[in-house]
Structures are given as structure tokens and as C-alpha cells.
Amino acid sequence: MISYSAENFRDSGEATQSTSTMPKSADPSDMQLENFKKGQPKPKVLTTSNGAPIANKTNVLTAGPRGPMLMQDVVYMDEMAHFDRERIPERVVHAKGG
Length: 98
What we know:
It is a single chain. With 98 residues, the protein is mainly alpha-helical. It has a domain at 49-86: Irregular (Cytochrome C Oxidase, Chain J). 19% of the residues lie in helices and 0% in strands. It is built from two helices and no strands. The protein has helices at residues 32-39, 74-84. The N and C termini lie far apart (63 Å).
């Protein structure tokens, strides 16, 4: 935390940073927000199968506002390629228990 005081101002009106910070309080509620931030994981980046970062994968490129989807949408093609190749086993109607 950076603190400014009257002695940190130069004649030109610029403020210089002070190396002193506010004293740490023994009350844990004062540090609650900082402790919460340390405990939270950083947001993960959404990537394609080859590792390229993408903003989202719910939107597709279209020709105009209500036009057809374009084949040049790499994110959509990558998603459909993985979706089409998922193995879904057939249901066995009268399977015996193991």
C-alpha cells in the first residue's frame, strides 16, 4: 500500500511515494479482503486443442447478423471435430450384472 504525506510533495507539486506503509493491525477483519484474494485461484484461460487462447466458444462466425455459419470459424470447427469423435457406447438391453 502506498501512502502519501505532506512531506512527500516537492516544490513542483509532484508527489513522491513513501516506503512506509500503514501499520499492520492485529484484527483479522482488517486483512479479510487480502486473505480472500490470496486464497482464490486465478482465472484459467480458455484455449483450443492446439493451445491458442480464445475469448469464448459459444459464438460462431456468420455471414451477416442472421446468415449461415462460416467454415472459416476455427474455434467452432475444432469443437465440432472433438464432439463428432466422442465414443458413445451402445446400450446393451439385457446386460448381465458383473
